[in-house]
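Lab channel / #folding
Pinned by the channel admin:
"Please post every new chain as: sequence first, then the structure tokens as a reply. Keep commentary short and put observations after the output so the thread stays searchable."

First post following the new format, from NK:
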Amino acid sequence: MWRSLFISLGACMVLWSASNCGAAKSSERTDVVENPPFTISDAYSQDWVAGIPEGGSGTNLYVEFESLTKNIDIINFHYNGYFTNAKPLSEAGEYGGYFLHQKRNTQMSSDPTVEAANTPPQRSILSLQEGEAAIEFLQQGKTKYYIIPSLRVEPMLSYPASPPKDDQ
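Reply from TO:
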């Protein structure tokens, strides 16, 4: 009787500790803020495709800040399961993020520098809903996130296969 009790207690302890392993990981929540220390005046995404197969395709994400204080650093944009660096486009508070869609044909070579060009897209740690994007920013040394609830989607840009001729 005591033996079966100890075995049952031991099994319960093992199951409890195994179930807490996953809980500990999911409890490390990212710091998502609802009232960010900035104001967004415009935010949209726009898909693009090159006119030739080798040109690729991607999505550009643009965010224009109405007010952005000096102690805030915009780091990354998260969108459609990936993230990319946020690049300042102007002094007026415009930022852009550029997501390249994975090419089907990768560069295979014995030269490591050639294969280094095959960098895969970086997966986001945030799980966003359809039509949402997130801004990753640094405030007082802490990384925080703000989720843009409804990102406007602009029509796709289709670039021509060749540049226009001068006589046209």
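NK: The chain has two helices and eleven strands.
TO: also worth noting, The radius of gyration is 23 Å.
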